Amino acid sequence: MIWPENVISITNHGLFLDSPEYSEIVQQAKRLNVPFVVGITEDAGQNQFTNAQVVVEVDGTISGRYDKVRRVPFGEYMPLRSLLKSLGAPTDLVPRDARAGTSRGWLDFADTRASVAISWEIFFGGRVNEGVTDGATFIINPTNGSSYTWTILQTQQVAASQLRAREQGRDVVQISPTGFSAFIDSNGTVHNRTSIGEQQVLERSIQLRSGRTLYSRMGNGVYIWCLLIAFALLARRRSRAIRIGAS
């Protein structure tokens, strides 16, 4: 059972493990006999918070945690806060900064490994590739684009999930309470996409895949080489046209 990004917010310097929400999730995990992968935020002191996905097992143990590494600037944190504040910028619009995670981008649950890209991390191929390199068999993208509801970003995020699926040869599960939820197969085809913010339980069998694609092995170098080859061909064609014109 996979839930979206930051659907549980723990305030007053509390911990998810001590919250009533945790107890309720354990009850549901036992009832359904499946682990829950849940998006949480927790206070982290000194005007900071964490944004993470945690795995709650059927017996209530927290078997895994991934804290978001790529934070949204001017959304989840304010870069150069002191400087911008001295210049009169409204830095109080982002009163707290998300603390960046440092762990590798994957979680183990249900006897397999998933590459995890929280929210806009799906736009960065390297974040997803990290989990695939470490043996992930599919990709999850828990997200919560509440600041961008009814904007083109929601469609762009689905497109980014399609790109990651084709790059890695992996199925993607995208989960959102405020945007689109969907399954994307390894060919980039979208299945069971909800409407924006539609409350629905989605179920679908996905393929768990191993091995690595050319992109997974070379990263963005694939695109760089394609651009270099294209420029070389264009330069050669232009040079040939100039020689023909001169003759």
UniProtKB/TrEMBL annotation:
Residues 1-208 form the CN hydrolase domain. Keywords: Acyltransferase, Cell membrane, Membrane, Transferase, Transmembrane, Transmembrane helix. CDD domains: ALP_N-acyl_transferase. Gene3D superfamilies: Carbon-nitrogen hydrolase. The chain crosses the membrane at residues 214-235. GO terms for biological process: lipoprotein biosynthetic process. PROSITE patterns: CN_HYDROLASE (PS50263). It is a multi-pass membrane protein. GO terms for molecular function: N-acyltransferase activity. GO terms for cellular component: plasma membrane. It is found in: Cell membrane. InterPro entries: Apolipo_AcylTrfase, C-N_Hydrolase, C-N_Hydrolase_sf. It holds the Pfam family CN_hydrolase. Its main location: membrane. This is Unannotated protein. It comes from freshwater metagenome.
